[in-house]
Structures are given as structure tokens and as C-alpha cells.
Amino acid sequence: MPAPPYAKILVLVNGGPPQTGGVVAPSGASIQLVAENTVEWRSWRWEITDYPRGFALPAGWVADANGLFFSVDVTPAALTLPQANSLFGKWLLRLVVNNGIDEFGIYNPARMVDESTAFEVVSPFGLHDVGAGEAEQFGGAQKAWVGALQDNWRRINALLGPVAAPSGTGFAHITNGVYDSPARLVTDADIVGPIDPKKVALAVPTGTGFTHVSNGAVDGSAKLVEDADVAVGAKVASSKVSFAAGVTFPSGASIIPAPDGSQRILVAGEIRGNDARNDPLNFGLTPKALTGGSVSLTAAEYAALTIRFTGALTSAAIVIFPAVAGYAKLLRNDTSGAFPLTVKTASGNGLVVPQGQSMWVFCDGVNLISGSTANAIVSAQAAHLTSQALANQTNFTDVSALSIAFPLAVAGYKIEIKSIVDLGINTNGYIAETAVAVVDGASTVVIPETMRGSSPQGGSAYEFAVTIYTVANTGPLTVKQQLRTSSQSQFVHINPPSSLVATLLRP
């Protein structure tokens, strides 16, 4: 058992002993989630990150905008599982303690975030579901989630058993276009040499859907493309092909060049492989260089599942996506410069993709919606004092060693600020006081009287304070520790190991 604080989920099925890892529960069971240890917890959040489709929000839990269920109770409300004949599958869990920050002010998901436990209800036929984000909870390091799929195929094979020979056919015997006997198989006597078309119920096609075209102009009646039109080993040139009248495409479809130079049809919202083989498992990567301003993606750029933005921004950048319901994209912001990158539809709300980070988005037909968890950590930094800092000013003075700079913060983001100070005075009867200052755009916001100390002469008092600040301006932002005394004739001091920790959170 690690030293507290830490995150560890335990599952109790119908009031039984605590379990971890992949827990199999009977249908209709009562599930209670508890923590192994809550010592030194300051904040906590239980999450059900994935669950079977159709599972309703449990009583006592809250759903966020992305459909994730969460609870901020120390012990969340118990869950009642559905009956397996109506709903089966896996419930994946996450517990985040102290926003993932350990006692040293370091983001430490290995200790402060637990995703190692999940539970499932097996179907009445013994089939297993697969959860989004499932790792080693059920199959271990060797099999992971693949083990469930392997078990399913073997059970399906056993359930199917040997396949019986078919009785009857769907063929009819025809002579000169007229049915002349009940449905039966075509026999050897019906076929002498090539199959007589009159023996087949399918109509013989007339004409073709191809038109001969030279340089974009129709130069002959409808006919097949001939050998003379295509050089040996060459592809059919797009100038040689047109579609017959009456051929239509879905709304939003366009013809774009594939990487191998051929033409293909892309329907808006459709995912296709874009390597030279059109491999359906290769969803493609589009690099997009930006400098700022508003740009719209072309059909070829939009075709890839993953889009990586690069370039040095000299102003805020806005990238316009199609307003088509149903598609999802993985976006990566590798730009530089102290300016935000916003993605949106032409008339929808904007989402900011933080620099150096990736974000899943999907479109509901009007807006792009983030697939990321709310209050996700953008950046966490810490500054530590290594030598004593003195002050004899009645106005707040910066402690130079305790300063944290964020190259880019976005308006509406939040900063969690933790100040851990060993504060003292040099003379009895005087007051030492600290504050946190946030340089936000052109403004400096001072959060005064964060801590106040009046320890005995030469002594010190250990102080701890936490505050949340909402960013007002998009751009660089600095968090600073400050110190002052009640009299200019007396020094006050901060001693090591005083620290300042700031965590930038995306709402």
C-alpha cells in the first residue's frame, strides 16, 4: 500500500468483499465503489468513463456535456446493474484525487489517478462486451481487451454448430422467358455450352453507363472505354470518363485526388483510407501550416481523421470545419507563438486547442464539441525556494524565486494556485504577510492576505493556501509569490522549502 495521498478504487458486489481489476458481477447486482484510503485528500472525482449503450444515469450521479457520469462525493451513490437479458457490457472507472497533484506539487497520475478497475455483466449467451478505453483490467498485460473478442468468437462458433444442407432453392426454370416448372436447381440438361440467356431470370442489359470523352468534351455515343483509350499499365485518365445522365451523388460529395494520383469520390462525413492502396485501416494524417487569421479546410485536408497544425502564429488562428453531423477528428496543435488556435464551424461556437496538446472533437451538425474531459490539465508547474528571501517593504514585493510563467493562457481557463510558505519575522510584535499576484494581460491582480504570520522573533510558521483564478485575457500569464512587512524598519522572511504550484485547467 503506497503512502497517502493516493487513488485506489475498490468494488463491492452485493455487499461482498472489496475487489480490484476486472470484476464480473451478476445482472441486477448492487455495486458500491469505495476508496482504499482517503487520508490527505483535498479534492476527488469519481467517473464512469464508459458504460453499455442504454445504461441510464444512476441516482446520485451527474452527467457532463459529453455523457460521462461523475460524482464528487467521498463515497459515491451505489449503482444497480440492469438484467443481462436487457443490457450487458462493461463499466470503466476513473478516480482522480487532488487533481492528480501529489504532496510535492507534481502532477503524478501513477499515484493520484486510478483507472485499473472495471466491472462487467456477461450476456445470457456468455458474450463479453469491449469498453472504450479498456486496457488490462480483464485480459491482463498479455491479452488486454483482445482476450474478450477471442472468447466471443469461440462461443459463437460453438453456438452455431454444424450448418445443415439447404432445402429447396431460389432458382426457377425458365424457357423463353416463361416459368415452366416449380422452383428447382438448374440441371446439366439446361446448360450446353454457354448458358442460354433465356434460361436466366436476370434481364440482359442494354447499352452502358460510360461515355467516350476527349479533353472533357463528349466525342462519341455511349460506349465502353476501349484499349486505345488506355495505355498499357496506365490508369484511366479522368478526362476519358464521364457519368451518364441521371447519375447523382450524396449531398456534400466531391471528387478529390488520392495520393496515388487517381480520382475518388469523398462524401462529407465519410472516413476513407488515403494511402496509395486506399487501405481502410489507414485513416490518414493532414499537416496544416498556419500563421494566423481565419482559414477553411479544403476537401482533401478534411478527408484525414487526424489533422496536425504547425507554424509560427503571428495572430490568433481560426480554422473552419464543415457543419456536417456525425464526423469525428483528432486535432494536434504544434504551433508556436503566444496566440490561440480555435476550431469551429462557419456559424458555430469555437473550441481552443491548447498548444502542445491533442483534442478529439465531433460535430453535431451545428457546433464542434470537445471529446475531452472537463477541467483537463493543460499545464502544471512548480517553483521552489532554495535560499531565504527577505522583505522590509509595507507594499507587496515579488519573491523572485517563486514565479511561474505560462506562455499562453486562454480566457475562461482556470488556474489552481497553491502556496506553501515557511513564513517568519525578525522582531516580536510585527506582522509578515504574503499574497499571490497574477499578471493577466495588461492587468496585475493581487490576491492579498493569502497568509499572515506573527511567529516569535527568529521563528517561523508553516502556512498553506489554495486559490482558484479565472483567466480574463488570452495570452502570456505569470503567477508570482509576494511578501510584505507591517513596518519598513523590520525584516520578514520566507525560508526554504517554500513552494508555489500553479495548474492551468481547460474548462
Major β-sheet, in short? Answer: 7 strands, mixed
Helical residue percent band: under 10%
Uncertain regions: pLDDT < 50 for 5+ in a row? Answer: 164-170, 201-209, 256-263, 266-282
How many beta-strand elements?
A: 34
Q: How would you sum up the global shape?
A: flat
- Tally of discrete structural domains: 4
Radius of gyration, whole Å: 33 Å
Task: Measure the end-to-end span.
Answer: 33 Å
Protein name: Tail fiber protein
Task: Give a nutshell description of this structure.
The protein is mostly beta strands and 507 residues long.
Give a description of the structure.
This protein is mostly beta strands. It folds into four domains: 152 residues, no CATH class; 30 residues, no CATH class; 88 residues, Jelly Rolls; 130 residues, Jelly Rolls. The protein is built from four helices and 34 strands. Strands 2, 4, 5, 6, 8, 9 and 10 form a seven-stranded mixed sheet that branches. The longest helix has 15 residues. The two termini are 33 Å apart. The relative contact order is 0.08.
